[in-house]
Write a structure and sequence with these properties.
The chain is of the alpha/beta class and about 300 residues long. The protein folds into 2 domains: about 80 residues, Arc Repressor Mutant, subunit A (Orthogonal Bundle), CATH 1.10.10; about 160 residues, Rossmann fold (3-Layer(aba) Sandwich), CATH 3.40.50.10490. Helices cover about 60% and strands about 10% of the residues. The protein has 15 helices and 5 strands.
Length: about 300
């Protein structure tokens, strides 16, 4: 369970019933409801029963409404302190926001995504993924849409240290490669929502071939996560203007950096030489002072 109650609510939505989802969304929109209302009053406000609210609290990992109430109050207080730090009163971006407000809100959301992801990261799972990458015969990186950009970033980093990695944003290429991965291969799928059909299918095929499957997602109880060997969870919250594209990508990129650094640490001698060679290889394609003087002449 997430260490942040409000984030735990958002991540739990894929596994909640319709009535429980109604309770979760009401609290996400207005956390003070939990602080101010009794369980009976909250149930009435959400158009459901007291038993549903009690079951909802247990579903997301709390013993009951009292414990959940304290956790939400703590989470809301912490979130308010962070908003004060960025001088942000409402994290969602509105059409009439000034440029100053937009800058502050985007900064707030992205810093929060990185900090919460790092704080709640399962370090054992991270190390298991690192071990799998280091010992892999081949690594397939699978992502579609914005998640495809993150997959490309990890491919670029692994290539720079001499590791074989393929990146797929076309399901017709991802599936045949996944089918041929086999034991010793690793497939890493990126999906903020955890419900991207193409990513799920590719990981299923990779797992059936005997490969180790890894999912990087914001929703640990999502369908994709449940079908993978190892799950790494981001902690990003998207607003209506930034769905699936900004803070989620920033959180994924932070995880990519962590994976890359840990792999590089473990292969330090080989990595140092690979980075030197690849750095030298592109130097002729950089604009030097000599190039600039020749251009001005």
């Amino acid at each position: 369970m997430s260490t942040d109650a409000l984030l735990a609510l958002r991540q739990a939505i894929p596994r909640l019933s319709t009535a429980e989802t109604r309770v979760a969304e009401a609290i996400i929109d207005n956390p003070s409801l939990v602080v101010e209302l009794t369980i009976t009053e909250l149930a009435k406000a959400c158009g459901t029963s007291q038993a549903t609210v009690a079951r909802f609290c247990q579903t997301i990992g709390y013993t009951g409404y009292r414990e959940f109430r304290v956790a939400v109050a703590t989470s809301a207080s912490r979130e308010q302190a962070e908003r004060d730090r960025f001088d942000v009163h409402d994290a969602d971006i509105d059409p009439d926001d000034t440029v100053e407000a937009v800058v502050a809100k985007v900064a707030y959301q992205e810093v929060q995504a990185i900090e919460l992801t790092a704080k709640s990261l399962d370090l054992d799972a991270l190390e298991h993924v690192v071990e799998a990458i280091i010992g892999a015969t081949r690594v397939d990186l699978i992502g579609f849409g914005a998640s495809g950009l993150t997959a490309q970033d990890l491919q670029h980093k692994l290539y720079r240290i001499g590791m074989t990695a393929n990146c797929f944003s076309d399901v017709h290429l991802a599936l045949p490669s996944a089918a041929l991965l086999g034991p010793g291969g690793v497939a890493i799928g990126f999906s903020h929502s955890g419900v991207t059909v193409e990513t799920a299918h590719s990981l299923e095929v990779a797992r059936a071939s005997g490969a180790t499957t890894v999912c990087i997602t914001n929703f640990p109880d999502s369908p994709i996560a449940k079908g993978c060997d190892i799950v790494l969870t981001t902690q990003a919250r998207e607003s209506r203007y930034r769905s699936g594209a900004m803070s989620s990508r920033i959180a994924q990129l932070a995880l990519v950096d962590l994976l890359f650094i840990r792999v590089a640490q473990r292969r330090f001698d080989a990595v140092a030489e690979s980075l030197r060679v690849t750095y030298d290889a592109v130097q002729d394609h950089r604009i030097t002072p000599e190039h600039r003087r020749a251009h001005r002449a």
